Amino acid sequence: MAGILEVAMAEFAEKGLDGARIDAIAATTRTSKRMIYYYYGSKERLYLAVLEESYRRMRAIEADLRLEDLAPEDALRRLVGFTFDHHYGNQAYIRLVMSENMQRGSYLAQSATIQQLNVPAIEAIRKLYERGLQQGVFRAGLEPVDLHASISALTFFNVSNQHTFGLIFKRDMRAIQAQLARRDSIIDMVLRFVRK
User: 71-82 pLDDT, tens per residue?
Assistant: First the structure.
């Protein structure tokens, strides 16, 4: 089933839910549409399984960051850098999230696991932030979900708008030097926002 999810992820990321074709997924995985429908029931349920798997993978990698082993500022730097790197290196994930936003979140709303999948990410930020407060390096009054949203927004935009932004401002947003500078800038912005 992992092979089907991989191929389906690429298909949905490239074409969205409406444009994706089970025929194409079946052909690439050398299985049958019937087999896909047997396991997933419908194209929409396969799409939801792909969304859940995408979030599951990101959260599993985040869990390995060992933020608790680092000083708060270093941990936050690692988290933001990881998020930037993950998003840039997994652009299909960003396109899937964009596609689901085009669907107004209607498929994730059907997920029995999506909230639980994301609890560890918010809990890690909460613990990191509280350590920073206790050590007197982070300012009071911030909320972990909001901090997560800000990190996500900055790193997400880097992928979601790279083509239009690069075209409008005549910048090669995919150049290595541009990516490194953008990464450093985002890390610096988040740290300045959180510091006391």
Answer: 999 999 999 999
